[in-house]
Amino acid sequence: MNIPVWLVWPLLGLGIISVLLLALWLRKRLAQVERKVSLLSAQLESSQQHAATAQAELEELRSGVIGVGQRVLNLQESQQRLKNQLAELHEQHQVIALSDPESKIYSRAMKMVELGADLEEIIRECELPRAEAELLVNLHQQKQG
Prior knowledge:
With 145 residues, the protein is mainly α. It has four helices and no strands.
């Protein structure tokens, strides 16, 4: 079977044109894909830089939080030591107040003032000088007012 030449050349020409058009279209698509890959690569790099920056900031914050936590623990320990010292001082004050007879007199006089005793009664019962009894009464009035 012989196909006439005049029929083969146009078919061959159409095939070559089709292949060329297909090659051009593929080249155009390849360029588009390469642009998209390039854009995505740039976005990925930018995202990685942001992630690295965020990681560094997180580490900095973590260090800061640990430092603050340590300071809080130190302050709590200091506060507890101060509470213990205050309790010891209070106990020492009570021991001194109970052992000091003069202190007992003033404690009794203050208690009488708080209960509403008058000046003469305080002077008589506690054997205090008038000026000291007046001072205790005035202090109690200032504390109440």
